[in-house]
Design brief:
Helices cover 74% and strands 0% of the residues. α1 runs antiparallel to α5. The longest helix has 28 residues. The radius of gyration is 15 Å and the shape is flat. The protein starts with a helix and ends in a 5-residue tail after the last helix.
Length: 90
């Protein structure tokens, strides 16, 4: 249980860091900058959009929707859900 709580907090911290990176980029350019999950994964060398499109249509559509979301949203939602599921019971 403690490992999942730790993972939840790490994901929440990563989400906040990614949100901060988008905020700094927005301030630098003077226009809103929101990096999608696909953009971040392609920046580290992974072709997530191509891999998602190679699957069955239903799975490809679902993964495509996730890849169009900002990565900080994906990490944040997963982290908050894990934090709620594995919170300490008093």
């Amino acid at each position: 249980m403690a490992a999942f709580r730790f993972l939840a907090w790490v994901l929440i911290a990563l989400a906040i860091a990614l949100l901060g990176a988008d905020a700094v980029s927005s301030i630098e350019t003077g226009a809103p900058v929101i990096r999608t999950t696909a953009e971040v994964l392609s920046a580290i060398g992974l072709d997530a959009a191509g891999a998602a499109a190679a699957g069955p249509k239903l799975i490809a559509d679902g993964l495509g929707a996730i890849l169009d979301l900002p990565l900080w949203t994906v990490f944040g939602v997963i982290g908050v859900i894990l934090a709620l599921i594995f919170r300490p019971i008093s």
